[in-house]
Amino acid sequence: MGRYVARRLLQMIPVFLGTVTIIFFMTRMLPGDPAAAMWGDKAADPAQLAAFKHQMGLDVSKWQQYLNYMGDLFTGDFGTTMGGRKVTDVIGEAFPVTIQLALLAFAFELVVGVAIGLFAGLRRGKAFDKSTLVLTLLLISIPVPVLGFIFQNVFAIQLGWVKPTVQAQHMTFDQLILPAVVLGSISLAYVARLTRTSIAENLKADYMRTAVAKGLPRRKVIGTHLLRNSMIPVVTFLGTDLGALMGGAIVTEGIFNVQGVGNALYHAIGRSEGATVSGFVVVLVLVFLFASLLVDLLYAVLDPRIRYA
Amino acid sequence: MRGASQAKWVVAAVAVALAATACGSNGGSSSGSNGGGAVNAQGTFSYQSTEPQNPLQPANAMEVGGGRIIKTLFKGLVDYDPTNGELRNQVADKIETTDAQNYTVTLKSGWTFHDGTPVTAKSFVDAWNWSANVKNNQINSDWFSDIQGYTDVHPDEGDPKATTMSGLKVVDDTHFTIALNGPVSYFEYKLGYTAFSPLPEVFFTDPAKYGQSPIGNGPYKFVSWEHNKAVTVAAYDKYAGVDKPKNAGIVFKNYSQAEGAYKDLVSDNLDVLDQVDPSDLASYKSDLGDRAVDQAQGAIQSISFSLYADDWKPANLSKVRQGLSMAIDRDTITKTVLNGSRQPANSWVAPGAMGYKDNTCGEYCTYNPEKAKQLITEGGGVPGNKITVLYNADGGHKEWVDAVCNSIRQATGVECVGDPKPDFKSSRDLIKNKKVDGLMRTGWVQDYPLNANFLRDVYGTGAAANDAGYSSPEFDKLAAEADKATSVKDTADLYQKAEEQLAKDMPAIPLWYYKTTAGYSNNVQNVKYDSFGDPVFTQVEVKQK
């Protein structure tokens, strides 16, 4: 197990370097001049533009910029935004917000999704199962913006239960519920369906018959034997989903004015701010790598037949 | 001295207000109509804003997010009266000149910065010298280019030779002189721009740190900047200007999308709107009732011809351009596609600017398919009988570009298609480098409400924003004459003559003027907008709860 983890950690190094390199060049190849864009609709004063580019280190070749960037990166310097702020500060502001939102959405899809999937799977072919299939299909087919606007109009404007957007200055837990539900709803549908299929299949497995024949209480049969064994596909899905949630949700964060990773990335891309985009992606690559490692380790916990050496 | 008693209230209330600003003004449940409720002078209100892109230094804000905040924190020699766009003195007692080139400025006494230090002639001269210096990377540094010695601190290449401009001289605490490179009769109008604000001495010790917590001399003083969340300012009790705040402070709330801000406004979680988002334009008047705002703005949308490209280079194509302009049904497009959010244009200068003259474009901006066809034929036809209109696809322009093209196609039979570029930057690069082959979306937002700004800065030969590459000796001659006039009024009148030349040459087709389509919540009243589209912050009254 220890050797396996060490090997996986070592494998992360080339993956990390590769993605950072690709992202660096991709963001620097975006059309348009990020420095000139500071002037908006107006034409930039050439002398000022040149001075500005020099200060931002944009007046050297792309390869030189790349070397400078990588060098700074390993000393923990993520560079600065066009406005002169430290990228690490921007990352430090956005991630806590997104993490709160992601965990809430994750908890929602995990708890509700698995519960629905479990009941539907146990009562396969019954009314609850059939309505689950129809409703989850409906949920998957509704685009996120539509769902967001409907929820916002119904729960915030018409019923007035919550505020329509997240109030960044005074963010409270209840303001995050609406975006979290919208964010988690599509994954919830997938989780419910995956759980349902897995449960329904494993109900017919030999070990289930043995457990029932041993006379184990139903709670134990379902909780320990059935559910645990049925979780492997669900965990695989949830693992990658957690990474995706951490990456921020541009659409949902936009609708509910959440000042998280999605919004920050959206604006940075819009302004071609290579340093900011790269900074966020560097952190996200790490999140994804660790999430997938965690999923692989969880397999062994869930299914004792899986061993890592 | 209307509102003097209220001003006293503001003075008395500031100590309390400082604490109150931190709480914001949301969560209000007041209802009812919007006329003349009791005013809470200690009340603060919130405004739909965006995160400032740059440190809050007066010459470093080109985008509205930082620009509006700077406007509340600083006050220059003069500003524009929000009701009619006319120039009025603020820190200046008088600005005198005999030749429109050499100015003597006399300051009023009694103005102080928010840290208590006095505003003197030196505060202005030092600030302008610093802001113009190319090394200090101020986005608006070229605003000082009229001043003698500008090239010493801001050379085209290399390091500056000096740190001060020779054209600026401090006489004493309340007097300084400005010498320009040549006569610029509307220089006083330029002085109303925030780049010409004074700076306190503390600024120069650490400009970067200052940019995070600025100290100005305006009606509001800085309280806090919570990045990506909000910027909070509070009324300054010793403010010496004519426009004393009627409220105790403003919270500039950061909204990444206008839809969210609108939803917050409808539910009274936001008090004053910047602009209604396109998807709510159709219903905002019924949603907000008499709290809806619909007003002309100092900005114009046009489509320009690439006069430098082979197709449009020939000198005799002006009739074709006029014909194309006549083929555009501006009334219908603004009403339907744009939901009434724009006003059809019939000149190259937006209304509200000094020197604006109605209908300078005349019949060429009136829809007339018959005459359009006739003019195009007379002019020898559109090159290739096809035009393209370049625009950026990320700015919501597709709908109206398609509508304009449809109108041209149906009226004249000329093939017309939109030419979308993925984003603003890439389209701007093509336009700036004069690589457009055909027509392009262009627009102009006034820097100051004077017609010269819409004309010389956009259509003068070699002007930075002359995207069409238009070069007319007649226009340049008339503009140069106008610049030599000794009063702003004469300048404006003479520029109207220059504008007539544009109707003859039609380098760009004026389409429509922008409008401020906004609104405010049940918590506030007396919300007015100026020609820049900004609310008159100091006049907003917060209602008693």
Automatic annotation (TrEMBL), chain A:
<feature type="transmembrane region" description="Helical">
    <location>
        <begin position="99"/>
        <end position="122"/>
    </location>
</feature>
<feature type="transmembrane region" description="Helical">
    <location>
        <begin position="276"/>
        <end position="302"/>
    </location>
</feature>
<feature type="transmembrane region" description="Helical">
    <location>
        <begin position="12"/>
        <end position="30"/>
    </location>
</feature>
<feature type="transmembrane region" description="Helical">
    <location>
        <begin position="134"/>
        <end position="156"/>
    </location>
</feature>
<dbReference type="InterPro" id="IPR045621">
    <property type="entry name" value="BPD_transp_1_N"/>
</dbReference>
<keyword id="KW-0472">Membrane</keyword>
<keyword id="KW-1133">Transmembrane helix</keyword>
<protein>
    <submittedName>
        <fullName>ABC transporter permease</fullName>
    </submittedName>
</protein>
<dbReference type="GO" id="GO:0005886">
    <property type="term" value="C:plasma membrane"/>
</dbReference>
<keyword id="KW-0813">Transport</keyword>
<comment type="similarity">
    <text>Belongs to the binding-protein-dependent transport system permease family.</text>
</comment>
<dbReference type="GO" id="GO:0055085">
    <property type="term" value="P:transmembrane transport"/>
</dbReference>
<feature type="domain" description="ABC transmembrane type-1">
    <location>
        <begin position="95"/>
        <end position="299"/>
    </location>
</feature>
<feature type="transmembrane region" description="Helical">
    <location>
        <begin position="234"/>
        <end position="256"/>
    </location>
</feature>
<dbReference type="InterPro" id="IPR035906">
    <property type="entry name" value="MetI-like_sf"/>
</dbReference>
<dbReference type="Pfam" id="PF19300">
    <property type="entry name" value="BPD_transp_1_N"/>
</dbReference>
<feature type="transmembrane region" description="Helical">
    <location>
        <begin position="176"/>
        <end position="194"/>
    </location>
</feature>
<keyword id="KW-0812">Transmembrane</keyword>
<dbReference type="Pfam" id="PF00528">
    <property type="entry name" value="BPD_transp_1"/>
</dbReference>
<keyword id="KW-1003">Cell membrane</keyword>
<dbReference type="InterPro" id="IPR000515">
    <property type="entry name" value="MetI-like"/>
</dbReference>
Automatic annotation (TrEMBL), chain B:
<protein>
    <submittedName>
        <fullName>Peptide ABC transporter substrate-binding protein</fullName>
    </submittedName>
</protein>
<dbReference type="InterPro" id="IPR000914">
    <property type="entry name" value="SBP_5_dom"/>
</dbReference>
<feature type="region of interest" description="Disordered">
    <location>
        <begin position="42"/>
        <end position="61"/>
    </location>
</feature>
<feature type="signal peptide">
    <location>
        <begin position="1"/>
        <end position="19"/>
    </location>
</feature>
<dbReference type="Pfam" id="PF00496">
    <property type="entry name" value="SBP_bac_5"/>
</dbReference>
<dbReference type="InterPro" id="IPR030678">
    <property type="entry name" value="Peptide/Ni-bd"/>
</dbReference>
<feature type="domain" description="Solute-binding protein family 5">
    <location>
        <begin position="87"/>
        <end position="464"/>
    </location>
</feature>
<dbReference type="GO" id="GO:0042597">
    <property type="term" value="C:periplasmic space"/>
</dbReference>
<dbReference type="GO" id="GO:0043190">
    <property type="term" value="C:ATP-binding cassette (ABC) transporter complex"/>
</dbReference>
<dbReference type="InterPro" id="IPR039424">
    <property type="entry name" value="SBP_5"/>
</dbReference>
<keyword id="KW-0732">Signal</keyword>
<dbReference type="GO" id="GO:0015833">
    <property type="term" value="P:peptide transport"/>
</dbReference>
<feature type="compositionally biased region" description="Polar residues">
    <location>
        <begin position="42"/>
        <end position="57"/>
    </location>
</feature>
<dbReference type="GO" id="GO:1904680">
    <property type="term" value="F:peptide transmembrane transporter activity"/>
</dbReference>
